[in-house]
Fold this protein.
Amino acid sequence: MVTEMIIAAVLGCYIISSIIFFKFPMLLHKKKDVKFICRHISHRGGAGENYENTLSAFRHAVELGTDMLELDCQLTLDGHVVVCHDSVLDIRTELTGSISEYNYVDLPPIKEEIPVDFMPGIKFSSKSEDRKFPLLEETFQNFPNTPINIDIKIDSNELITKVSELVKKYHREHITVWGNVRDVITQKCYKENPNMCLLFSARRVCLMLVQLYTGILPFVPLKETHLEIFMPIVMMKIYNYHFGYKWWHSAVAHVANALLIRRCLFEHLAKRGVQTYLWVMNTDDDFRLAFDSGATGVMTDYPTKLKAFLEQNPQYTQDRKLS
């Protein structure tokens, strides 16, 4: 009887303290000092409005007033850090093979018509002459004050080191976020430069969810500053387009959505200085779902569309400072 009472008391204290610290994490943790808050994030510069990951796309997004540019980095044969999503050239150029097999000067232009990955069945084409993969250094030079979200696409110590050196060279550690869905890459990024803002890897997201539902999360320190995740019910549409619809897809997506997209989680993280971005959202309905869930910001292929949505719905930007 005594043992049961002790166990019950300990468990009760744990539950109560977990609830208190979940609601008031500042009692245990120092809030992260992130220098920017982003509501409007342009995915690859806005892949639905310009050739993705080009200076023209970035310039268009910045002129619109985007809060952040999202881009991807690869490494060429001669050691240049190039802004490009795919490690192979087949999808978006007329050449085959890997970017790492070519010197930078030999990289081909982007095809005149390329797919918009997060808009199934939609392709982008334009008369724009800017179809060149830019260097990361060029991007830093052209947009020195714009926060940039860098996806390190390959597990390369050389790439990680060179990106960090460029960030330091252009004095932008305070406005650069980096990482990858793969934990091994994100851990290397943090080890290389812990002063830069850091993304959650997929493994760390899963671990955080376990901690959330077991009540441990309020007690655990976080080195990451940005939670960048997709909304399962939105991603299901894209998955079904490419792989076909199965009756159980919807059920799985809704369960995953209920577990992952939690306002209480996003609010807890916000109080600790961690921003939450949902990707890639391309319709007004998607934007509304994201902001209603409590996300800090939205990443989109259509920066003009997101700008118009935020202007028409100022409730998502007014009085919504990071807690």
